[in-house]
Amino acid sequence: MHLAWLKSFSYNNEGGYEAGVILLDCTVSNKIMQEMAEGFDFPETAFIYKNKRKEKNIYDIRFFTPKCEVYLCGHATIASFYLLAKLGKLDRKEDKSIAYQDTKAGRVKIEVNYEGDKIKNVFVYKSKPKEYGVIKDKRKKRIADSLNIKVEDIGLEKYELEPTIVYTGLSDILIPVKSREILNNIKPDVELIFDISYEEDVVGYHVFTIEDNQLYARNFAPAAGIDEECATGSSNCGLVYFLYKRNIIDSSVKIIQGEAMNEKSLVYCNINETELEYYMRFGGEVEEVNII
Predict the structure, then answer these.
(1) Which tens digits make up the pLDDT trace of 119-148?
(2) What SS3 string covers the chain?
(3) Domain match, 117 and 199 both
(4) What is the pLDDT of residues 12-28, one digit of tens each?
(5) Residue 279 domain flag
C-alpha cells in the first residue's frame, strides 16, 4: 500500500488543492475507506485499486470526503494518476501515458505528460458541457447580495454577459464580475449562497473575471460542504466552454484560482473541436507534499 499527500493544480510549486491518495493492495470495505478519509481530513481522498479485468492502464477509483463518498473528483483524479505515474504503474509511449479510471460516474480518460523522467502535468477528459439558462432581475440581485457586491459589479466590461447555469456533470452558476479587485474582495454570505444553490439546483457559484487577457476565478460550493475551493477542474471547463462559444477566449487557456485564499492555483483547460470529434479537458501540475 502507498499513501500520498499531493496538491493538484499547483502554481510554481505553490498553492494547489490538497488530496489524499491511497494505492491499495486489496479491496477494503466502504466503512474502512470512510474512516481513513475522515482520519486524513483532506477535502477528498482517492482509493485506487487495479481494475478487476486486469486491463493495462485502467484503475478502479473511489473518492471519499471526510463525511461521505462522492462519485467523481477532478483534483483527486489528477493526484491519483500522478502517483501511479510516479510509481511506474502506467505504460508510457514516448512522452505520454493514456489511461482510464472506472468510477461510480463512469469511465474517464486521463492523459499524463512527461518531460524526460519528470511528470509534466496530468489532464482529465470531459464531455461537452450544457447551458441551462441565464439568471436576471430579482434572482440576479439576490446573487449580488450573496456576494456582498452591487448588481452593477456583475458582468464584463466589454461583453454583455449574465449569470448562467452551466452543467459539466454538476451544475454551477457562472458569474462574471467587472474586475479582479471586485473578485478578490468578495465577502460571500455562505448561508445565502447555500439557499440560492438549492433553489437553482446547482452545486454553487463559479465567479470570474478577465484582466490583461488572464482569466481569474473563485468557486463557492457550500451546498457541497465547501465554502470555497482554490481550484476546480470541472467548473473551469464549464467556464472555458461558456466563453469560447462567445468568441471571448481561445480554445486553450489557463485560469488562476485561489488568489484570495493565498492558495494560488493554475488550471489548464482546452477544447478540441473538429468535424469528427469534440472534447474538453482540464489539468495541471502536481506538487508532492509526502509520499509513503
Answers:
(1) 999 999 998 999 999 999 999 999 999 999
(2) CEEEEEEEEEECCECCEEEEEEECCCCCCHHHHHHHHHHHCCCCEEEEEECCCCCCCEEEEEEECCCCEECCCHHHHHHHHHHHHHCCCCCCECCEEEEEEEECCEEEEEEEEEECCEEEEEEEEECCCEEEEECCHHHHHHHHHHHCCCHHHECECCECCCCEEEECCCEEEEEEECCHHHHHCCCCCHHHHHHHHHHHCCCEEEEEEEECCEEEEEEEEHHHCEEEECCCHHHHHHHHHHHHHCCCCCCEEEEEECHHHCCCEEEEEEEEECCCCEEEEEEEEEEEEEEC
(3) no
(4) 988 999 999 999 988 89
(5) no
